[in-house]
Amino acid sequence: MKQEDYTNLGSKIKDMRIQMNLTQADVAAALEVTPGYISNVENNRTAMSLRILIYYAKLAGISLDSLIGKIDSDYQETALDRELFTQIQKMDPDSKEKLLKTLKIWGNE
Questions:
Q1: What is the helix (H) or strand (E) element at residue 57, kind and residue range?
Q2: Is the pLDDT of residue 2 over 70?
Q3: What distances in angstroms separate CA 95 from CA 76, 84, 86, 91, 92, one per listed residue?
Q4: What is the pLDDT of residues 45-81, one digit of tens each?
Q5: Distances, alpha carbon 27 to alpha carbons 36, 49, 57, 59, in Å
């Protein structure tokens, strides 16, 4: 990951928190850190450790690859593939069949 990509990590973490309808206090409690720590991360004053990044990805329901892929544009395509695979694994067999038919239609355009 390039150094300049780290500067956007805090805002991406904040955007994800807001999308999950969580407060800084909610995230802090889930990660067993202080709300001030989350504030510092979101304002790029502190970087999350790998352990906390892993816990944050789990909280958000995404893979760590996906979280990092949203930060590192060079890794984004692989992360997107992995996230698609993760979401497909959660689907029931009927939904997977429908998705496959849809993808085949799109592929013939």
A1: helix 50-60
A2: no
A3: 26, 14, 14, 6, 5
A4: 888 888 999 999 999 988 887 777 655 566 666 767 7
A5: 11, 15, 11, 8
